[in-house]
Amino acid sequence: MGKTLEQTLSLVPVTRPKAANPTVQRRSRLLRAIRKQQMMVERFRQGEKTDRAWFWSNEEGKIYLQIKYGKVVLELAKGKFAIQCVSLEDVAKNLGVVENLIHKGEFDTVLSIVSKDIRSRFGKPT
Description:
This protein is mostly helical. It is built from four helices and five strands. A three-stranded antiparallel β-sheet has the order 1-2-5, covered by helices on one side. Strands 3-4 form a two-stranded antiparallel ribbon.
């Protein structure tokens, strides 16, 4: 006879939470945006038009990368809002580094602050 369900699968007594954790939601949103930017780097390399890219180069040829949550540029360190990159490959590499830091929770504090700021602006008359 074959194996039972319990012998075949790793079953655990856990149910899905009814409410999503806000921290996890913010991380997921930023991770989706990071992956979208990684695809934009590839499209830019292939010569395609890339609207809303977080990276740009100045007149001296230096490449900069900002990290955004929605339309808000994140302050990565006190008074620092961009990462200087040496090439498009460096942009892709730095996006990967940021992605790993997000998974580790390194952006949770800044995301929480930005999220509260964004929410505070809803419902107020202009």
